[in-house]
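Q: My labmate handed me this sequence with no annotations at all. I'd like to see what the chain might look like in three dimensions before we decide whether it's worth expressing. Could you predict it?
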Amino acid sequence: MRMPITIIAAASALALAAPLHAKTIDVAAGEGAQTRLQEALILAEPGDTVQLGAGRFLLTDGLSLDVNGVTLRGAGMDASVLDFTGQKGAGEGLLVTSDEVTLRDFAVENTRGDGIKSKGADNVVYYRIRVTWTGGPKETNGAYGIYPVSSTGVLVDGCKVSGASDAGIYVGQSKAITVRYNYVEQSVAGIEIENSRDALVTGNLVTRNTGGILVFDLPNLPVMGGGNTRIADNLVIANDTPNFAPKGNIVAGVPRGTGVMIMANELIDVTGNTLVANPTGQVMVVAYPKPFTDKTYNPLPRGVWIVNNTYVGGGDDPQLPGGDQLKAAFGGALPPVLWDGLGEAPLASGGDDARALSLNLPAQGAGAELARPAPLTLARAMPQIVPVAPGASVPRPPKPGAPSALDARARP
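A: Here is what I predict for the chain of 412 residues:
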């Protein structure tokens, strides 16, 4: 019996997508681990798994992976440890430049540069990865722990990061992103979404960082126009570590004690989070503060929703000019929401979400000495509508997040 053409085509596509001879390449810790592991990553073919044994892999140089469809898997984030304490170069611990890669169940420690960076790697999965600088917060630590950039399709799930001198988990210039169920501490920024669209940041615990969750849009980058990000159901607790970023980094200006900060971005939902004891501000909505020459760049926040969040304490030690006077004027603590007065005022669900302080800055780039602080009650958000300009509104954009196919690779 002749098979229908559609069935033949489907079978051919399946054969291409799933190699028939996928294999597992075992790499044990011990002598020669650097050479053996890099060789395995070079020789792996699409569909293969490079399996790390339990133990500590003592590495002196960075690793790279540029083969599509490879899984690098360890015995657990505390069992298989890639130890870069003796790293000689200044680069990342692991650089991934291929698509459909899954990284899971291992740790990276004490890299000279970033922990793990994936660049231009579409549909990449980080699952139960630990990245740590074991000496605690230091300016000399690597900038980023988990660092996917220039990608479509990113899932960061169940990971732990501590000690990054810029951001523990950073996703930049990407789209279709999910960052969920991660634990980030003692970094300058816990989680940062930058110049990216369609990101879902949910179910994370960020604590003891300088700032908990940041959503930024910056000028003069290859990918511009971040937006449509949902920050939902996270625990943002006691982010009170002094800022230890190298001078000149954009996050060096993040005040100690920031819970969630939205800067120069659009269509952002801050929904259902629990924010506790973030001493400068629980939620901050601000414009980009520096001069810029990029004519395509919009430095103002717009379309920000602050809805159904829970606040405990916070605002009791604001690292702002005149912070002590402001705190006294509000009875000992600032309200939950701080807005610099530029761009569109956030919309709120009412209650504590609506209690705000506006700095009433006169223009983008104006110094803090020109602020005219005043209490503000935020206008109420209307269901299913996001404002795009005063007096105008549009339906909410599509639900953000990574492709559902990535879930199967993280949690098969």
